[in-house]
Amino acid sequence: MSAERAELRLEELAERYGLSGSQLTRLEGLLWLLASDRHAPTSVRSPPLATDAHIADSLVALELEPVRAAGAIADVGSGAGFPGLPLAVALPASVVHLVESQARKCLYLERTIAELGLENVRIVCQRAEQWGAGKGASDVVVGRAVGPQPVVVEYAAPLLRRGGVLVDWRGRRDRGAEQQAASAAEQLGMRMTEIRRVAPFPGARDQHLHLYLKVRETPPGFPRRPGVARRRPLGGGGEVEAAAARASEPGSTQSRASRAPGRPV
Fold it and tell me: Would you identify the CATH topology of the domain 65-243?
């Protein structure tokens, strides 16, 4: 795809999703910054490739009503800012938190946000498990190329309000992985509601958005300590009981908080 074709593709995307001229200009600026900043944390930087691989693939979430209606969105493991930055451009009334633990990536995101003048974006330079201020604050959590789905579900569950939705980008379907993720979701107060096949750009194959609804509050003991979700992913049974047991141990934060004056322990 040539640079001229990339511009045409952006115009097509703007028409497809009802974006204004100023929003289109910001998406063009985002592509330019990605291409010109050698510190951009992605291997796909040229506009002809990034238009589809990053912009179109991010904006396809606008097909989902919960995303379009969201007042607060958290992009976990944001990396170079996808899907969070294109969604922030497309949804100026939504506050988008980019949750990224690596300082160098956070610096890139800060530069990009300043250059684009995006006032509805906040950077959270922390691991998702450590973002206490984000607990129960998001209508939608998005994750793209973050990790195994049970891990993404565990990152997302504590950040969502009850009734909120996780949208997880996936490629070719894997029934075994989906079953494990559904089991993990059940342990976390989440429920898989839809796996939607999408076509974000011409020629796209095996592209899916996996949706999980938060149906009840996240059990005590979650999120687990940083890194534990990856080392011991949920879905195999037993982990939720272990997390609850840790929460009730003497001296734990949850245990101390539950001991209010006059309340029996």
Answer: Rossmann fold (3.40.50)
